[in-house]
Amino acid sequence: MKRSMVSLVILISVLAFLYVPIILVVAYGFIPNGITMSFFDSEGRFTGFTLKWYAKIFSGDYSVKALMQSFWLSLTVAGASTLISCVLGTTSALALHRWRDRVQTIHHALVYTPLVMPDILIGISLLMLFVAVKIECGFWTILIAHVTFCVSYVAMTVLARLQDFDDRITESAFDLGAGPWYAFFHVELPILLPGIITGGLLAFTLSIDDVVITSFVNGAGTNTFPTYVSSMTKHSRNLPCVFVLSTLMLIFTCFLVGISKIITGKMFIPTQHK
Predict the structure, then answer these.
(1) What are the contacts of 119-124 at 24+ separation with CB within 8 A?
(2) For residue 201, what are the CA distances in angstroms to 48, 99, 135, 257?
(3) What would you report as the CA-atom Rg of the chain, rounded to the nearest whole angstrom?
(4) Domain segments of the chain: what residues?
(5) Per-residue tens of pLDDT for the chain, all 274 residues
(6) Rounded to an integer, what distance in angstroms lies between the CA atom of residue 10 and that of residue 12?
């Protein structure tokens, strides 16, 4: 089959559109001058690369203290919301799969709604709720907000996994004397684990990346990494530190994806019998 030049150009253009900005983020973490944001001096000479921004991050420099606090807050919120969302999302998906009645129809609509609702509407609604019940905005309100929209993604991912699940496997476990908890942890959970991991990775990415909803429910001194960066991108001399942290987040995310691939891959490798 003859390769079309047009399709090749389109492919290269799409790949460049997706990955060139990421490459630039990594490259700007090594930029010498954080004021001009250029690899060249006033005379047009190439000034090379530097690791001073990485050193600044790991040395705990006071000028990037607030940035690092926002970074660790984002990781904490993302990790906690992912764990909670995986538990709630999995149980929600199991309920939707096992029981199908009018109540579950309403349940499905409630789970699905955050997926199509604009972020600004979710943020305003949660803020009004916290104000109504007189909860001071801070870490816990951010966590509740992130769990609110992350649960839906986990539930739908696990529910999609359950569509291909053969319920006769669980029934066979019951016939062989397994109790409900044993059957769940030793039969259902291993089969659902790839879907749970996928939903968890999606929830982690959405949580650590969120700006709109978080900007409504965060309080004084509880800026997450995205909200803090959005306020400093136009005037900070430490902007390359943002690119350094973004690069580290990218590496960490790729690491998580790799681990999930290894885990899910081992589950589907057929056992070799000699």
Answers:
(1) 119/149, 119/210, 119/212, 119/213, 120/212, 120/216, 122/148, 122/149, 122/213, 123/212, 123/213, 123/214, 123/215, 123/216, 123/217, 124/216
(2) 36, 27, 29, 8
(3) 23
(4) 62-267
(5) 556 788 888 889 999 998 998 998 898 888 887 777 777 777 777 777 888 888 888 887 777 888 888 889 999 999 999 999 999 999 988 888 877 777 777 877 888 888 888 889 999 999 999 999 988 888 999 999 999 999 999 998 888 888 877 777 877 887 777 777 878 888 888 888 888 888 898 899 899 888 899 989 988 778 888 888 887 766 667 788 888 888 988 888 888 878 877 776 665 554 444 4
(6) 6
Domain 62-267, architecture per CATH: Orthogonal Bundle (1.10)
Q: Which of 16, 17, 25, 21 has the alpha carbon at shortest distance from 229? A: 25
The answer to whether residues 245 and 58 touch, using CB atoms and an 8 Å cutoff, is no
Question: What is the CA angle 259-262-265, rounded to 5?
Answer: 145
Amino acid at 59: S
Amino acid identity at 179? G
